[in-house]
Design brief:
Elements: E1 11-12, E2 18-19, E3 21-25, H1 54-66, E4 71-75, H2 85-93, E5 100-105, H3 114-119, E6 124-128, H4 134-141, H5 146-158, E7 164-170, H6 179-189, E8 192-197, H7 215-223, E9 228-230, E10 240-244, E11 250-254, E12 267-270, E13 275-277, E14 285-287, H8 289-293, H9 298-309, H10 329-332
Parallel strand pairs: 3-4, 3-12, 4-5, 5-6, 6-7, 7-8, 8-11
Antiparallel strand pairs: 1-2, 9-10, 10-11, 12-13, 13-14
This protein binds iron/sulfur cluster.
Iron/sulfur cluster binds next to loops.
């Protein structure tokens, strides 16, 4: 009787954390210029010939899935600016072991892509939305149109993508008078809302951390308007959720600065050029593209991924070194 194949050991990092989730950046380009992410006039994009091809992406993700990775999130820059995304989505959802494929997007192009992504197997989306006021939205995003984002959200809803999560970066002195409005907007549309603390991942000067707000302040303000109680949301993300009384709305709080969640980290990031970033807040990385283009075999690729994981740091040091800008967010896709 042949011995059943050993269940993949899974990817365990030096701190005993099981890595089951890869954030996959498909481009460092974006059709917005959010001031806390990509500076206006930024031109230092990766050359397309250095972008991993869909075949290379599929090989790496197959290797990861064979090591127990079950969740993939397609990010960017703005992933919807990469051509033929539904084709890649179909190939990724067909990989053995992949149980969940999602997208993080600014939704400006979503109206034309939502149906095709849903049909290709994308189950859910996260949309960045920091304001419901057109002028302020344009100011934050460097000229973005709020209406196109709203149209994209409604198209995603119509296509059956669920849950639809709204990510709002809490920005002192910029959108801190809109938190209640955003809760009501999500109540009206049955979206899940997550507030995110600004991280020092961006350009010096006017980056997000100069508008940093501890989310405890946001919670205190919301408790004056809503009956909030502990809530839960499926999915292995870092958000801590509260439920709005008398509704199905969950509000998530993502607190990388005031209450980091590194002890339960379950992710790594693959950038558009094939660089494996082991942590959002550190420089620890491993270059996969040269090996892929030198013809590495699949079994060797898995061994390399295990080796790379040994580089994963315990946590970020945003608090200890707030001035040390690692790289801009669009390079690793948040
Ligand atoms: S900062 Fe690094 S260690 Fe902490 S949760 Fe993010 S990726 Fe994981």
């Amino acid at each position: 009787m042949p011995k059943p194949a050993d269940k993949p050991q899974g990817l365990i990092d030096p701190f005993g954390r099981h890595i089951s989730y890869v954030r996959l950046s498909l481009t460092d380009k974006c059709n917005f210029r959010c001031f806390y992410c990509m500076p206006k006039g930024f031109r230092d994009f990766e050359e397309p010939e250095n972008w991993l091809t869909f075949d290379e992406i599929e090989r790496v993700m197959r290797a990861f899935a064979g090591l127990g990775v079950s969740r993939i999130r397609m990010t960017g820059g703005e992933p919807l600016v990469r051509k033929n995304l539904p084709e890649l989505a179909q190939r990724l959802t067909a990989l053995p072991g992949v149980q969940d494929l999602s997208v993080s997007t600014n939704a400006a192009l979503l109206e034309n892509h939502a149906q095709a992504l849903a049909e290709a197997g994308v189950s859910r989306i996260n949309v960045s939305l920091d304001s419901l006021r057109s002028e302020r939205f344009a100011d934050i995003t460097g000229g973005g149109s709020l209406q196109t984002v709203i149209n994209g959200l409604l198209a995603a809803k119509k296509a059956g993508l669920r849950p639809i999560k709204i990510n709002m970066v809490a920005l002192q002195g910029i959108n801190d008078d809109e938190f209640v409005d955003m809760v009501n907007f999500c109540l009206q549309h049955e979206f899940t809302l997550r507030f995110i603390e600004a991280m020092p991942v961006g350009v010096s000067g006017r980056d997000a951390s100069s508008h940093y707000m501890d989310l405890a302040q946001v919670r205190t303000e919301l408790e004056q308007h809503f009956d909030l109680s502990p809530g839960v949301m499926p999915g292995g993300g870092p958000a801590r959720y509260l439920r709005v009384g008398g509704s199905d709305l969950n509000i998530g709080f993502i607190t990388p600065i005031s209450q980091h969640f590194c002890e339960t980290c379950n992710r790594v990031r693959l950038s558009v050029d094939g660089t494996l970033y082991l942590c959002l807040g550190q420089e620890n990385r491993f270059e996969l593209r040269p090996l892929l283009r030198q013809g590495i075999r699949d079994d060797e690729l898995q061994a390399v991924l295990r080796k790379a994981l040994a580089l994963k740091p315990e946590r970020h040091d945003f608090n200890e070194n707030p001035e040390r800008i690692v790289r801009i967010m669009s390079m690793t896709g948040g």
